[in-house]
Design a protein that fits this description.
Elements lengths: L1 H22 L8 E9 L5 E4 L8 E5 L1 H11 L8 E5 L2 E5 L2 E2 L4 E5 L3 E5 L8 E2 L15 E2 L3 E4 L2 E7 L2 E4 L3 H8 L11 E4 L2 E11 L6 E4 L2 E11 L16 E11 L5 E3 L4 H7 L3 E12 L4 E5 L7 E21 L7 E22 L17 E22 L6 E13 L8 E4 L1 E9 L6 E3 L23 E9 L1
Parallel strand pairs: 2-4, 3-5, 4-7, 5-8, 6-11, 7-12, 8-13, 11-14, 12-15, 13-15, 14-16, 15-17, 17-18, 18-20, 19-21, 20-22, 21-22, 22-23, 23-24, 24-25, 24-26, 25-27, 27-28
Antiparallel strand pairs: 1-29, 9-10
Bound molecules: 2-acetamido-2-deoxy-beta-D-glucopyranose (7 copies).
Length: about 475
């Protein structure tokens, strides 16, 4: 019903403008207005274009002030129907800007946000409380390009518009150890709820691409992420201490994990104590030759639970699903369900690492042992794989309840490695080729469906989108 009404409204606006153009003073000038429609968790009563605030899309002029002025102005509508900011075709150079609540940022398909390469333009903010320090350096970190904190109802979308992180200068500084602070991410939303990030292309991020943290009710859909496969730490999507998230229809080529599920680092993450849970990942395509398709950790000190991944396609990636943890992390990785993976050219189909190391400082608790349990992988076809699996738990604290069923892995003819190498784990298997390690006790072919996958849906699956519109007037 709502959808129909909004579409009709869009058409009426269009024809009214056309009439005006034909009968008004300016009928000698061809005026055309274009109605843009997009789906979103909520539509907005007020609209503006970045050009209304002095924005210049020439690829040279800085638009940082224009973006911040536009959003500061639009924030007055937070309690009056919300607002949308339209970014027309052009190359919009900008440094970081902060979002507001009940707000939509919409990028036209030919709009490119170009992240400033000028380090001095980036504000430095405090480390994340669950990390205790920056990921690249001790101390603070550069604010992300598109940043929001303590917000509700935020949409970042577009008709596949582009956000270009221009990361090369940051990668060079990182390699030369010239950075004073941790590199910025492209999008970071903290302490927020009801977030949609959809139908955009993100390229060459200085570091991580999309980082929702301490947030809930998040939809990430139709995102293309592209970065050179050797670029440092260009993780795709990192849900971090988040509840109720769905990531769907994304295509990621990057230099680090395509999706990295996180929840804080050692003693800082344990003290903060906020897990990532209720996460669905569907229809993900990943190319990441040196990293995982889906990583759980390594920062998982608030816990990771109830992750459901299905319909995953990976080409030329290091590992399928990877659990990364170690002594000092504490917390748990549990109730992980994966089904329907097609993997082509991989080093490992499955990988679990119980001695990941990488500590924020030397104050981690050597008695903080992570618990890894109830890990389910089923319906997997893999080809050209070097090793089927390397599954290493922690001595004295095995990873338990591992279930692998209905899996066919074709080992590359050139591989001379052991197909399965398991230490400090326990679990079962059924209908797995090649024959798994003895620690995964074979239940026989009758148990081909042995590994669980939840049949209920997550609350985020019940969120319905509306059809929203924006009318552009082009002189
Ligand atoms: C993304 O774009 C597709 C069409 O390309 C459209 O069907 C879909 O509704 C859009 N989704 C969102 C969440 O914007
Ligand atoms: C954006 O938010 C951060 C964190 O709250 C703050 O440090 C920064 O000053 C804000 N930037 C602007 C331009 O208001
Ligand atoms: C944001 O929310 C967090 C958690 O509720 C709170 O600790 C923090 O003070 C809030 N920050 C602002 C700027 O309101
Ligand atoms: C969006 O743009 C990227 C980069 O040009 C392209 O690879 C991708 O196929 C586009 N997605 C859609 C849905 O058109
Ligand atoms: C198999 O994997 C190797 C790398 O391990 C790669 O060089 C080769 O091209 C792959 N073959 C096919 C048919 O994809
Ligand atoms: C086994 O996995 C394949 C996909 O790899 C799937 O098509 C098939 O339905 C699965 N079989 C069972 C019994 O679940
Ligand atoms: C199996 O894994 C263990 C633990 O990582 C390692 O020490 C051992 O060398 C591996 N064995 C083979 C044959 O690769």
């Amino acid at each position: 019903m709502d959808i129909l009404i909004v579409i009709v409204a869009c058409v009426i606006v269009l024809s009214a403008r056309n009439v005006e153009a034909r009968t008004g003073h300016h009928h000698h000038r061809a005026t055309k207005s274009q109605c843009i429609q997009y789906s979103a968790i909520s539509c907005r009563a007020h609209s503006a274009s970045i050009t209304d605030f002095g924005g210049v899309g020439d690829g040279v002029t800085s638009n940082t002030r224009a973006f911040q002025a536009a959003i500061d102005h639009l924030s007055q509508f937070e309690l009056h129907g919300g607002s949308q900011l339209f970014v027309p075709p052009g190359r919009w150079l900008t440094s970081s800007f902060n979002l507001t609540s009940r707000f939509t940022l919409y990028l036209h398909k030919d709009a490119v946000l170009l992240a400033s390469q000028e380090e001095s333009e980036w504000a430095v903010i405090k480390p994340l409380p669950s990390y205790g320090r920056g990921r690249d350096t001790d101390g603070g970190r550069y604010i992300s390009l598109i940043f929001g904190t303590n917000l509700t109802d935020v949409v970042i979308t577009g008709d596949n518009g582009t956000i270009d992180g221009q990361g090369q200068v940051w990668w060079d500084k990182f390699h030369k150890k010239e950075l004073t602070y941790t590199r910025p991410y492209l999008i970071e939303i903290m302490f927020s709820e009801n977030i949609q990030i959809s139908n955009l292309t993100l390229i060459d991020s200085p570091s991580w691409n999309i980082h929702p943290i301490y947030s809930s009710n998040i939809i990430i859909q139709g995102i293309t992420i592209l970065a050179p496969v050797r670029s440092p730490n260009t993780d795709g999507i990192n849900p971090d201490s988040c509840t109720n998230t769905r990531i769907e229809d994304c295509y990621i080529v990057s230099g680090d994990d395509c999706v990295a599920v996180k929840s804080g680092w050692d003693e800082y993450g344990i003290a903060f104590g906020m897990p990532t849970k209720q996460l669905a990942i569907r229809r993900l395509t990943c190319i990441s030759p040196t990293s995982a398709v889906i990583a759980l950790g390594s920062e998982m000190s608030g816990g990771i639970e109830d992750v459901r991944a299905e319909d995953i396609l990976a080409i030329d990636s290091e590992s399928g699903v990877r659990i990364k943890t170690g002594v000092g992390r504490g917390a748990y990785v549990k109730d992980i369900y994966v089904r329907g993976m097609t993997l082509k050219t991989m080093k490992w189909a499955f990988w679990m690492t119980g001695d990941y190391g990488s500590h924020p400082d030397n104050n981690y608790d050597p008695n903080a042992i992570p618990v890894v349990e109830n890990i389910n992988y089923r319906d997997v076809i893999a080809e050209n794989v070097t090793m089927a699996a390397k599954l290493d738990g922690i001595a004295g604290y095995p990873f338990t309840g591992i279930c692998i069923s209905n899996v066919t892995i074709e080992i590359a003819k050139s591989s001379k490695k052991l197909a399965w190498n398991c230490t400090n784990i326990a679990g079962i298997s059924s209908s797995v080729t090649p024959t798994p390690c003895a620690l995964l006790a074979d239940q026989g072919p009758g148990s081909i469906s042995a590994c669980n996958f939840p049949t209920d849906s997550l609350p985020i699956d019940n969120v319905e989108m509306q059809m929203c519109s924006y009318t552009i007037e082009q002189p």
